[in-house]
Amino acid sequence: MDTMVCLMGGGASRLYSAVTLSGSSRSSLPLPPSHLDSQSADTNLDPDFCKRGSTVCPHDPAELLQQCKDALRESPPRFHRKFINLFVEDSTPSSPIRMMQWNVLAQALGEGLDSFVQCPLEALSWSHRKYLIIEEILTYRPHILCLQEVDHYYDTLQPVLAGLGYSSNFCPKPWSPCLDVEGNNGPDGCALFFDQSRFELVDSISIRLCAMRIPTNQVAVMTMLRCRITEKCVCVAVTHLKARAGWDWLRSAQGSDLLRHLQNLVQKHPGAPTGDPSSDIPLLICGDFNAIPNEEVYQRFVTSPLSLDSAYKKLSKDGLTEPEYTTWKIRPTGECCTTLDYIWYSQELLRVDTVLDMPTEEQIGPNRLPSFSYPSDHLSLVCDFSFKEKE
């Protein structure tokens, strides 16, 4: 695939161009390549994790986790979060699939455009944050990992996680705001990782989301995986919808476009009856939707014929309410404490076995996120799923 060359400009002009771009209306317009043969990816690997001249950083997970802990020895302790077990039957879940969703905060945005006024600059440095990010992932060891705002994919996350047995796909935004920040590490985007010992790749597609058939600046990665234990397939997607107030209509259109693409992907594979929106292949859709639960895009997912539900509602007493927050930050405009991140799943085909609880306000602290204890303004979501048996 050819690399798209984008002229840099102000954020507003780039967004206008993305929404009003003339030409083809297909979302399969050229994207920056998800798998580069880039020479820089081979030569600029993070020296703290990777040996010089290596393209993969092989690690023992326990040793790498200890390396992170040693590097963070002078920092406050990480949040202690526990898994809530929802499986009440006598037998334990067989071979659950652990899923992790996380907006990790693009480095260029954290140090530049996002203006976390209560967070010390030292806590925002990549030399500190990278250890917290790797530690968080290693602590929970997901089989499938969905990340947004990734701008250190080629030099850090991909080689480190490849050394732990993960395969991955990365799709940068066509006009990433990171490129407006001096000294940036390239565009941010969405990345999907999966444990190769648990899954084999069947298919993977990177798309540019559309609104009213017009390509936008937001992307998604969709991957079809086959479980090596059950031989069953699961279709996974990661996305990051348009941010900011006043763009509800755009997020709703992007969500509809993503659902349409997912339905098409599922239907082209065995086990999916042509034209039937409910197939034998379950969906797992992760993302920072930049939308609170009463927004239209959320309702589109709730009412979709794909029979989706939000896993983190399981934390509430009634099973119907999202957490109070998945992001909590302080910017010059004020404090923002809200729910924007979700793990959607096919409720007729998958069962939620466990959900990682949220840290308390006391744990997060008065200066909120990010901090020396936590590298992002968004909290990670982690769930264990099992395939439901056919009745």
Automatic annotation (TrEMBL):
Q: Keyword Hydrolase, does the record have it?
A: yes
- UniProt cofactor(s): Mg(2+)
- Pfam families (alphabetical): Exo_endo_phos
Query: What would you give as a GO molecular function for this chain, any one?
Result: metal ion binding
> In its UniProt record, which GO terms are filed under biological process?
circadian rhythm; nucleobase-containing compound metabolic process
Query: What subcellular locations does the record give?
Result: Cytoplasm
Q: Which residues form the Endonuclease/exonuclease/phosphatase domain?
A: 100-378
| Top-level taxon of origin | Eukaryota
Which keywords appear in this protein's UniProt record, sorted alphabetically?
Biological rhythms, Cytoplasm, Hydrolase, Magnesium, Metal-binding
> Mind telling me which InterPro entries this protein's record contains?
CCR4/nocturin_mRNA_transcr, Deadenylase_nocturnin, Endo/exonuclease/phosphatase
GO CC terms on record? cytoplasm
The UniProt family comment states: Belongs to the CCR4/nocturin family.
Give the protein name, as stated in the record: Nocturnin
Organism field:
Solea senegalensis
